[in-house]
Amino acid sequence: MASSLNRKSASSGSRKQPKATRAPKQKTARTKTRSSARVQTARGSSRAKTQTSKRATRAPQASRTLGANRPSSAQSVVPSHTPQVSSVRIGDIERTKRNARVKRRYRRYLVFLGIIAALVSALAIGGVAIYNSSLFTIEEVSIQGVEHLTTEEMQALAGVPVGTTLLRVDAAGIKNSLLRDAWVEDVSVNRIFPNKLEISVTERTVAAIVEVPTQDAKSTQAWAIASDGMWLMPIPKAGTEAASRTSSTIYKDVEETLHIVDVPYGTEAEVGQYCTDANVNNALAVVDGLTTELADRVTSVKATDPESTTLTIKDGPDIVFGTAENIREKERVCLEIMDQHPDGVAYINVRTVDRPTWRAL
Asked: Which domains does the chain have, with CATH numbers?
């Protein structure tokens, strides 16, 4: 028993040994250095967190203070030392080039306008100087197209001042002065440099010589009348002083132009005025409307009244033509009647063209 208990206590003693007390370790210098480093690191980390927290707190306030153009707290903050890169669009480059071209073109345009303005000013000054000078003084006045008016009459009508120049001459005034004459239908005034003025006149032609009764009804006065019905002039009797101052062409017209006779008393004629007498105007319209050989054979027209207007033809009968209506048809009927009676016809009446009458020889 004793043995077993001894063994047991021996085994128990072997298993349970008293804990040895560890001697406290002394801190070395290296250990102290590491410990202080850990402490400083922990302190720095704590300080960094505190500063980061403060920045995060101040960021919204700064963004509200600086405005919308500053980055918000949600955006990344670019460090101050990071270089900023600016971008340029291709459209901006093209727009800049286009603006430069427009400016260059505008400058050239201004230069061009300046040159034109200078030239215009120089020309204006030179033109005024030439206009007021005696350059291009008129030395010759040429009048063309005149047959019934003499050169002296035309020069008096034109009234070109002596010593005037081609630049200062009043061409419009000369034209208006000439148009006041009944013979002048149209006129043009041309400057021929250096010193010639040319006046070209278109005269009215004599359509007939009208035997107008005088106021005492004892005689008649021959008047030249144009085809448009304008009274041209009374024709002086041959051998008088007035006839010596009249163009010889007018007397030639008296001999070759048909006469309108038997004009009723009271018909009035005035130089430069249009005829208002219905009898004379109807006779003129009939003569002017004839187109065949009959027109060349008419020697006179009796203008007693429009309905009884009568044509006297050379080597032929008197033709009662009537009014100036259906002139072509009346003319055709007259020629047919004369062709059908080669021995001659004493009288033809075509006032009613569809029922003509005639009397053969």
From this structure: 140-203 (3.10.20.310), 206-360 (3.40.50)
